[in-house]
Amino acid sequence: MINGEQRISRPLRWGMVGGGRTGQVGYKHRSGALRDGTYRLVCGAFDLDEARGRDFGVNLGVAAERCYADVQALIQGEAGRADGVEVVSVATPNFTHYEITKALLQAGIHVICEKPLFFSVTECEEIAALARDKGLIVGVTYGFTGHPLVHQMAAMVKKGLLGDIRLVDMAYTHGFNAGDDTGAGEAVKWRTNPRTAGPTFVLGDIGTHLYYLSEVVLPQLKVERLLCDRKAFIPTRAPLEDHATVLMHYDNGARGRLWVSSVDAGNMGSQRYRFVGSKASVSWSDAHPDQLHYEVQGEPGRVLHHGMPYLEDESLAADRMGALHTEGLGDSWANIYLWIAQAIDARQRGDEAFLATHHYPDIQAGLEGVRWLENCVRSADAGAAWVDFR
Ligand code: NAD
Predict the structure, then answer these.
(1) Does the CB atom of residue 205 touch ligand 1 within 6 A?
(2) Which among 21, 24, 71, 213 is the best mutation to test ligand 1's pocket, defined by most ligand atoms within 8 Å of the CB?
(3) By alpha-carbon position, which residue is closest to atom 11 of ligand 1?
(4) Which residues, at least 6 apart from 218, have a Cβ–Cβ distance to it below 8 Å?
(5) Which of 282, 234, 226, 235 lies closest to 258, judged by CA?
(6) CA-nearest residue, atom 24 of ligand 1
(7) ω into 239 cis (within 30 of 0)
(8) Across 68-78, average pLDDT
(9) Which of 17, 25, 28, 147 best tests ligand 1's pocket when mutated (most atoms within 8 Å of CB)?
C-alpha cells in the first residue's frame, strides 16, 4: 500500500513546460507529482503567454524569476543554479514534444512527456538513444495505468487464472466532438490539424491509452497484423479521424478489437476493457475503477473490489485508499509519478539492478504507442487493409 512515506531519499526538483492556467492536462500532472512530496515544483515555462504563465506559476508557489518564457529560457535559467531543476514534465500540444524533450535531455534534465510521445518511430528511436547516452530517464504519462485493478488484471493473467488469452476487446469513446468545430477552443483546434496533432486525432489522443494498458495487462502478447478503418465524421477534420475501429491478430492466435471515437454522442467518456481467456474473463472500466468483473466459465460472476486482501500483491502494492474508500484518477496519476520518480532516483544512485525489474511507462512504452499509430495509419491509408505489424 502507498501511504505517503518517502520511497526516495529526497524530493526531486521538478519543472513543467506547458500545463498552464488554460491547459487541460496540467493539473493532473501536478496532482500526481505533488501528492507524496516526491517532487517539488521549482520552475516552469507553463504557458505560451509569458505573462499569464508567470502569474500562474507564482500562484502555484514558484519564484517569479523561475517562471520562464519558454523551454530554452528555462534551460538557461536553471543551468547556473546549484539547486537547478532535475526533471521536467512536458504537457504541451503534440507537435512540440519532440523538440522540447530533445532540448531538455541535451541539457541533462530527465523528462516526463505526454502521449502520443512524438510523431514517428524514427523520432522516438533518436530520443531513446539520446536518453541512453545521457543516462537520463524519459517517462510517459499514460495516466490510467496506475489504477490498482489494472495491475490485478495483469497479475491474474500472469498466474494463468484466465487460461490462454483469446480475445482482447477495448473501447475509449466520448461524444465531446460530435458537433462541428465552429468556435472550438485551442485544444480542439490543435488536435484536429495534422501539423500540430501528428498523423492521427483520436487514435493518438485516446487510442494510445488503450493500447498501452493492454500491454501492461498482456505483456507477453505481441500484435502480428492489424486492420484499421478510420473516418472523419466532421469532414473538416480530415485527413485526421474522429472515429476508428482496429482489428488485431496477436502472435498467440488471440484476436483483438479496439474502438476509439470522439463522436460517440451522449457518451461522457469511458474506457472499457475485456480480456477473455480459455477459462475466464476480466472486465474493467475507468468509469468504475474500483471494481473488476471476474467471470469464470460455468460459475456465477464475481465483482472484485480494490484494496481487498483477496487481491494479488501487485494490486495491493498500488493501492492508496484502502477498500472502504474510492480510488480515482488522481491516485492513478500519483502512482505513475511515483514509479517514474523511483526510476530517476535509481538512475541517480546508479542502481541498475532496481531499474532492471522496476516497471513504469518508459520511453519504450511511448515508442510502442507511436509504432502502433504508424501501423494503424498505414492500414487505414491502404483502404483498411490488413498490414503486418512492423
Ligand atoms: P491544451 O491546449 O489544453 O494546453 C496546452 C498548454 O500548453 C497550454 O497551457 C499552453 O499555453 C501551453 N503551451 C503550448 N505550447 C507551449 C510551448 N511551446 N511552451 C510552453 N507552453 C506551451 O492541451 P492539453 O489538452 O492539456 O494537452 C497537452 C498534451 O497532453 C497533449 O499532448 C495531449 O495529448 C496530452 N494529454 C494527455 C492526457 C492524459 O491522460 N495523459 C490527457 C489530456 C491531454
Answers:
(1) yes
(2) 24
(3) 47
(4) 154, 157, 165, 168, 275
(5) 226
(6) 24
(7) yes
(8) 98
(9) 25
* CA 97–ligand 1 middle distance (angstroms): 10
At residue 70, the 3 state secondary structure works out as coil
> Pocket of ligand 1, candidates 27, 31, 48: which has the most ligand atoms within 8 Å of its Cβ, to mutate?
48
Question: From the alpha carbon of 26, which atom of ligand 1 is closest?
Answer: 26
- Picking from 296, 275, 279, 7, the residue whose alpha carbon sits closest to that of residue 149 is 275
Helix (H) or strand (E) holding 31: helix 26-33
Supply 343's cell numbers.
526510476
C-alpha distance across the termini of the chain, in Å: 39
Q: Tell me what pLDDT residue 118 has.
A: 98
CA distance 370 to 354: 27
User: How many angstroms does the Cα of residue 141 sit away from the middle of ligand 1?
Assistant: 12
Question: Which CATH superfamily hosts domain 12-144+337-367?
Answer: NAD(P)-binding Rossmann-like Domain (3.40.50.720)
**Residue that has been written with the C-alpha cell 524514427 in this structure:** 122
List Cα–Cα distances, 66 to 28, 43, 103, 209, in angstroms: 21, 5, 18, 33
Q: Which helix (H) or strand (E) holds 111?
A: strand 110-113
> Hey, what's the cell of 45?
515555462
Output the nine-digit C-alpha cell for 178.
460530435
Query: Residue type at 57?
Result: G
β-partners of residue 243 are 231, 261
- Residue whose Cα lies nearest atom 14 of ligand 1: it is 92
pLDDT in tens, 1-23: 999 999 999 999 999 999 999 99
In three-state secondary structure terms, 78 is helix
Counting from 1 in the atom list of ligand 1, the atom nearest the Cα of 49 is: 11
Q: Are strands 138-140 and 110-113 parallel, antiparallel or unpaired?
A: parallel
Percent of the chain at pLDDT above 90? Answer: 100
Prediction ipTM score: 0.99
pLDDT tens-digit readout, 243-287: 999 999 999 999 999 999 999 999 999 999 999 999 999 999 999
**What is the enclosing helix (H) or strand (E) of 44?**
strand 39-45
